[in-house]
Amino acid sequence: MIVNISEAKANLSKLIDMVYHGQKVVIAKNNLPIADLVIHKPKGKRQLGLLAGELVVPDDFNDEDLQLEKMFYGSDE
Predict the structure, then answer these.
(1) 9: phi then psi, degrees, rounded to nearest 5
(2) Measured distance CA(12)–CA(28) in Å, rounded
(3) Dist CA 60 CA 77 (whole Å)
(4) What was the pLDDT predicted at 30?
């Protein structure tokens, strides 16, 4: 099925439902095919923990830094 952009705007939900049920939908501009409306296919599952053990957080990570505080909040003097 080929639909022009204006028709696709007006009937997007219907077109998505058609694609969901296996139909091919092509979106055209001035009857020239521009894009295919297709079902999303994930590239794969995310893999968590890829950098486990690779990074070290220093013990003083959350300690206050007076120089940074002066830059952000100014001096108390």
Answers:
(1) -60, -45
(2) 14
(3) 26
(4) 92
**pLDDT per residue as tens digits for the range 33-65:** 999 999 998 888 888 888 888 988 899 989 988
Q: What one-letter code names the amino acid at 67?
A: Q
Strand-pair partners of 2 = 26
User: Please, what's the b/e burial string for 21-52 (b: 16 or more CB within 10 A of its CB; e: otherwise)?
Assistant: eeeebebeeeeeeeeebeeeeeeeeeeeeeee
Share of the chain above pLDDT 70, in %: 97
pLDDT of residue 44: 84
CB neighbour class for 53 (10 Å; exposed up to 12, middle 13-18, buried from 19): exposed
